[in-house]
Amino acid sequence: MKLFDRFILALYSLILIVVSIIVMAVSLEVFPYQTVERVVSSIYEYREVQLTYLIVSFIILLMSLRFFVYGYKRQKPAPSIVQQGELGDVRISLDTIESIALKASRRVNGIRDIKTKVEPTDHGTTIHVKATVDGQTPIPQLSDELQKHVKHDVQEIAGIHVEKVTVMISDVNKNQIARARVE
């Protein structure tokens, strides 16, 4: 739910709470009959009061319609890759594939921080890896090992063909550089 919808829902709930309290108070005769009669008759007598009630009622109606439509709106399924199995389709979400790639990446020594993105293609899957390295292991060796681990694990665990694994080394871990200078 978006922030705007949450705000509208909170406002809507507050209005319903106030209206419920007023209706309960009138039902329990907390307000004298004359007070209730004066409020109701003021709606019919004064044009400004009519307009105010009309505007507030219209806003509440719009909020009700928004939540009614929102309640029946279909949620889009999470992006996934469909595999044909013997007994039917198997859907593996892109988040699952990203998690497998992250887990494989963490096993590579020299990698400090990692982010992955999975992109389905016509011929398989492309996995983009963005990594921060320790600055002590040669980057070509790290990236080669990273690509092999990610491709192997995703293909073995998910059973999805990995077309390619792209690696972007975005930074060198600053803490490792600082320690090297101190020594």
Question: What report would you give on this structure?
Answer:
Helix 1 packs across helix 3 and helix 2 (33-45) crosses helix 3. The chain contains 6 helices and 5 strands. By secondary structure, the protein is an alpha+beta fold. 14% of the residues are buried. The longest helix is centred in the first third of the chain and has 26 residues, at 47-72. Strands 3-4-5 form a 3-stranded mixed β-sheet. A two-stranded antiparallel ribbon has the order 1-2. Residues 177-182 have low confidence and may be disordered. A hairpin with a 4-residue loop joins strand 1 and strand 2 (89-93).
Question: Could you give a quick summary of the protein structure above?
Answer:
With 183 residues, the protein is α+β, with helices and mostly antiparallel strands.
Give the strand order of the largest sheet, numbering strands 1, 2, ... along the chain.
3-4-5
SSE class: alpha+beta
Largest sheet: 3 strands, mixed
Q: What value does the Rg take, in angstroms? A: 30 Å
Low-confidence stretches: 177-182
Tally the beta strands: 5
Count, helices: 6
Reading the helices and strands in chain order gives HHHEEHEEHEH
End-to-end distance: 52 Å
List keywords for this structure.
single chain; 183 residues; 3-stranded mixed sheet; two-stranded antiparallel ribbon; elongated
